[in-house]
Structures are given as structure tokens and as C-alpha cells.
Amino acid sequence: MKRIITLTTDFGTKDGYVGTVKGAIFSLNPRAEIVDISHEIPPQNIVAGAFCLFNSCSFFPKGTIHLAVVDPGVGSRRKALLVQTQKYFFVGPDNGIFSLALRREKLQKIIHLINSKYFLYQISPTFHGRDIFAPVAAYLSLGIDPDEFGPQIKEIQNLPLPAVKKTKTNIAGQIIHIDNFGNLVSNVTAEGFAEYKNMKVRIKKSVIPRLSRTFAEVRKGDLVAYMGSSNFLEIGIREGNAHLGLKAKLGDRLELIL
Amino acid sequence: MKRIITLTTDFGTKDGYVGTVKGAIFSLNPRAEIVDISHEIPPQNIVAGAFCLFNSCSFFPKGTIHLAVVDPGVGSRRKALLVQTQKYFFVGPDNGIFSLALRREKLQKIIHLINSKYFLYQISPTFHGRDIFAPVAAYLSLGIDPDEFGPQIKEIQNLPLPAVKKTKTNIAGQIIHIDNFGNLVSNVTAEGFAEYKNMKVRIKKSVIPRLSRTFAEVRKGDLVAYMGSSNFLEIGIREGNAHLGLKAKLGDRLELIL
Amino acid sequence: MKRIITLTTDFGTKDGYVGTVKGAIFSLNPRAEIVDISHEIPPQNIVAGAFCLFNSCSFFPKGTIHLAVVDPGVGSRRKALLVQTQKYFFVGPDNGIFSLALRREKLQKIIHLINSKYFLYQISPTFHGRDIFAPVAAYLSLGIDPDEFGPQIKEIQNLPLPAVKKTKTNIAGQIIHIDNFGNLVSNVTAEGFAEYKNMKVRIKKSVIPRLSRTFAEVRKGDLVAYMGSSNFLEIGIREGNAHLGLKAKLGDRLELIL
């Protein structure tokens, strides 16, 4: 049965851990279609993993199984989960890694993965990605009923994004992600974009006079504020790198002002 | 319909942008075979992207769709293109990224991608890789006729490699790529290799006394000049790194001398 | 014919070399399933490649073809090999890269790859990954008999791991791998784990008072010694990075003491 399984992890790509997980999946379902979302989540950074999954997962077809493993609590009492939504399945640790993605989905079922019949024979206490999550995703891709994997539960860890603070004349957010191009992604969302139209953006010691639709609206080397492809306000430099140019870092404050 | 779609981008692999593009493709054609050529083209470096695609694309089977997105002009008036050759399809921005690859191909048709029926529903002004090029490649892989995507045009941006200068006793080129092993790839091509046979190679302050067929012809740690697997003259160090050893950089001069 | 071909190389992912190898495989067998184990083996580091392949390969299904190319001797007289075991095929240079993986397998046949009918038409003296190993793996995935590729031979290069030294009160090993999380993997194996139970671990100037099953048994920031998922003794720091925290490097001594 051909079913897509995506992978979002902090494993890196140098050690072969990702290959191992793929081997474990293909050993159970040679017809699975495995797609990497990212393996370069900073080690143990659950927020970064949640954000990456959130940005990418909704572009996959209905029925996709999203496996996400950023798992600093491996071997502790944190639960192993399967979450079923109207469109997708999510498999991974109960530490908040799905909480951003789930905002957009219609939740149907949360399963606590405890049926070891669907785990690898011997469970390493440090590599549940290989020994629990990969085989569960593989069995799921073969059509095993979610309820087979364990009992339904009601609660799941939640991981909120830092809140945006709004007054009548000011919206204050922060940088929550810096991408490969050095673009600074903030937590200010596109909802209410209309009201931002006449606002300036202040970041570090710079003020950007208005929002743009695209990089091409400013000159080469200039700062540009725009609604990014993930629907968050972003700061970039045309044909440059805002991360380096502004010496910006995660958590830096960004303000929309009148 | 099983059809290979290759990806060459400057997206990096940490943000999930590549996963997003693959999701967009699989959502339209779950049977596509997507193959990464590289996602580590230096941001906005069209020449590097063109060179990478040039080296790799011709090894793929007939009918392959080569999607290449290094796109500093996204959101400007640069065109979106589909280029059909006797052997392949190329999809991406009209900025010269295909110009090296196309030298080797028999051009059949250039299509200006304007039929938004084949784009994602809502187009981000900063991520045409996801919203225009990925769905066009996916529809193409499903057998949609190239002419469906827009009108034929005649012109395409060209991006020449820097020229090699030849005299009777001297051939002067430059370093155009540095690879993962630190090997220095020049713009001097294998055509005329026979006449190089008795020449020395000068680079930085070193002179390499002759061309070799392979690294094994010199001693460990020695400089070696050879025709690389892409048919350009390359400089390496046996079991070492010429990039570091020579402190070489892109654009450095290299000469063949009698 | 659908058959998995894994890739373990030192090619890196920036240059398109990996894409080229995949193109060469798909040109011969469009139905192959190609899976990356790692392309970030440090250039020409055969031991690191052997270790990576060893850790990952056994999780793949029976019949998998493991292609491994870390090949400082390319173009020299080192042999090109196909090794058949009860469970797998291994294709690559005869330089010891398979020697760790083969310890666990039942060897059936070693073939010296000399039948150029199964190579690319023109062989580059520096890229046998593309020109010899990729097509051989592809033909093998199509069901070509191993004996077609060349004569059987008896000997293969061996690459031993450094030996562990044991006395009645002391077991001395060394760090043989540092992973993406900064965990230090030693050459001390899980055999005899029972007898280690009451031992301390000394590394650099630190002493870890006992072995743990999992990171969760120590406090955040503390050193932890545990049997890793590859069945070697590892040193980590809970929610930290032992590589950086201990300023450890490959070859550093590690002792189990009473």
C-alpha cells in the first residue's frame, strides 16, 4: 500500500540515523513513500521542530503520516503518541511537537502507543524513532487501525508560540525562526494584514517604512518587511541576508508602529 | 504516471521548504519520483545552480523533469519558464539557471508559464517554487501538454561561463567551482585535451608539472591536475584538500603553460 | 523490479554528485528505490564510512543492495567489489568499507567487478561511484546474476576497529565516533554488559559513577554513560552536548573501572 510518511527530526544527516529509520519502515512496508521534511532541527529544540512541521505538513496529500522526532525526553515517562486528524496522522513523542500543526487540523483521535506488538522486537531506551515511531508509522501505512496501537487519551502536551502584544498603535512580536536565506520570521500572523498596511516595522535599530508584497519592491541591499509564505511577518534584505545584516537572533523584538 | 522530477535549489534542508515543495508535487501526482540534485546552492547564486544542474542533469533518463529554483528575482517581472528539449523538461525562473544545461540539449520549445489554472490556488509572492514551479512540474509529470501552460516564446536568459583565453603557448582560465572534497573545478574544458598533454598547470604560486589521469598517479599530499568527471580541468590534492591547501577561491586564475 | 539501493558516501550534498549517481541508477532501473544512509562521511575517511554503514545497514529488508563509496584509492589498482551475503548485497571499493558490516552477515560470495559491459560506456578515472558502482547496483537490482559481473575472489580488505583492552578491574577503549547530538560512541560493545553493571566510567577528567539505561536517569546537564542504540558504550550529556562539554575528540581514551 502506497502511503506517504514524512520525517521531521533533529537526527542530522551525517550519522545514518535517518537511513536506519527508513530501513525500519521499508522492512515493514517496502511500498511506503518516505519524504524528508527536515533532519536539521537544532538538537532537542521542540519549538523549532513544531514550527518546521507546521509550515510544511499541510501541503501533503490527505492520508499522509507525519512522523516527527525531536525527543529530549526519550526513555522518560513522556508518552508516545499517534494523533489522527481529518486529514493526517501524526506519530511521535508527547512533548508539544505537534501542537502548532494541530491548530489547523480537525482532531479526531489521540492514541497512546503502548501495544508493543507493533514496536521493534527489542526497544533501545534512546532511539524510539527507530524502535517505536518508525514501525508504528509503517504499520499505519499498511492500514492497521489506529485503535490497535493503544488506548485513546484526551490530553496532549501543548506548546504555545510566544504571544503578540497589541495596542491601538503598536503590535509587538518577536523573531521565532531564521531561515536558510537569513530571513527573520516573526510570530506576527497575516490575520489583520489589512490594518498593518500603513504601519512601519521597527527591528533592532532600523525602521522599515512600509510593508511590501515582495522583495522586488525594494532596492537591492534594502530591508524589506513582507508576509512570508507561511503567513507570518518576515524581515529580509533584498539579495542579502537580514540575519547577518541586522545581527538579529531568535527572540529579538519586532514592532509594527503607526 | 511514474515520472522523475529532479530538484536543484538554494533552499537548504533545515527549514522544510524542500519538504513543502515535495508535498505540493505529491498532492497532485502521488506517483511522481522526486530526486534531489542539490538544495545547497549558495543562496541566490544562479551561476552555481546552473553549474550543478549542468553536471548532473544529463545522467537522468529521457523524460525527466528538471525543476530548478534559484530565484533572487521572485516577485519581480522575471518570467516563469518551461523548456522542452529532445530529452528533458526544465521548469524554473528565466534567469539563466538552465543556460549551461541547455548547451548540450536539443531545444524544442520554450513556454512562458502564465496559465494560473496549473498553479496553487493562492500564489505567495516569495515562494514560486512551491506555488508555481512545483505544481507545473507535477501536472507535466501527469502528462499535461506543455502548450497548456502558456504561450511559446523565443528568448531565454543566457548566463555564459567566463571565457577561457588561449594563445599558442598559454591557456588561461579560472576556478568556477569548489567541490565537497576541496577540488578546484576550472572553466577549461576537455576539448583539446590532446594538445594539453605536454603542458604544465600554474595555479596560485604552484606549478603542476603535467596532467594526470587520476589521483593515484601522484604521491599522497601532492597537487594533481586532471580532467574531472564533468570534463573540466580540475586541481586536487591526493588524499587532501586543494581548496584549503592552496587557499584557493572562486575566480582564482589557472594557466596551462608550455 | 522494485529493489532498495542504499547509498553511503563522502560526496556531500552540495555538488550534485549524489543526484548524478541516482540519475545513473534510474536510467537503468527506473523502479529502484534509492535510500540515502549518509553522504556526509568525512572525505576519504573509510573507517567512518564503515561505521556508519555497520550501524544502519542491518535495518533494511532482505535483498537490499548497499552501495558504499568512500574511495580515496579511485583510479589506483584497488579492486571494485560486489559482496553477496545471506541477506544483502554490498557494492563498492575494496578498501575495508564493508568490513564492519560483514562481521554480522553470512558471507556467500565476493565478486571482482571487471565486466565492463555493466559499467557506463565511458569510465571517468575519478568517479567510479557514477560509472561503475551505480550501474552495477542498478543491474543487480534488475536481477542480473552476481557472477555476471566478474570472477569470484576469496580475499577482501579488512579494517579492524581499535581493540578494547581488558584486565580484571579495567576495560580501556576509545571514542570512535561523535554523533550529531555530540554523543561520544566508544568501541566498548554491549557483550559483557552485565559485568559492567557496577563499574564507573572515566573519560577525560570526569568519572561517571554508574551506567544508565537512558538519559532520563540523570539530571539535566549531567554526564550519562549508556549502551547506545548501536550496542556500543556511549557518553552523553542530558539535554546537552558531551562533545563540546568534555572537549572530547576521536581517539580519546575511555575506561570502565571498578
List the keywords.
alpha+beta, nine-stranded mixed sheet, Elongation Factor Tu (Ef-tu), domain 3, Rossmann fold, six-stranded mixed sheet, 258 residues, homotrimer, 2 domains, elongated, 19% helix
Percent in strands of chain A: 25-35%
Q: Figure out the total of helices of chain A.
A: 6
Q: Which second-level CATH architecture of the largest domain in chain A applies?
A: 3-Layer(aba) Sandwich
Q: How would you spell out the order of helices and strands of chain A?
A: EHEHEEEHEHEEEHEEEEEHE
Describe the structure in your own words.
Chain A has 258 residues and is of the alpha+beta class. The first copy, chain A, folds into 2 domains: 4-149, 3-Layer(aba) Sandwich (Rossmann fold), CATH 3.40.50; 165-257, Beta Barrel (Elongation Factor Tu (Ef-tu), domain 3), CATH 2.40.30. In chain A, 19% of the residues lie in helices and 29% in strands. The first copy, chain A, has helices at residues 17-28, 46-57, 99-102, 128-141, 193-196, 242-245; strands spanning 4-9, 33-38, 65-69, 80-85, 89-93, 107-112, 165-166, 170-178, 184-189, 200-203, 206-208, 211-212, 223-227, 232-237, 253-257. In chain A, strands 7, 8, 9, 10, 11, 12, 13, 14 and 15 form a 9-stranded mixed sheet that branches. In chain A, helix 1 runs parallel beside helix 4 (128-141). Chain A is elongated and about 60 Å long.
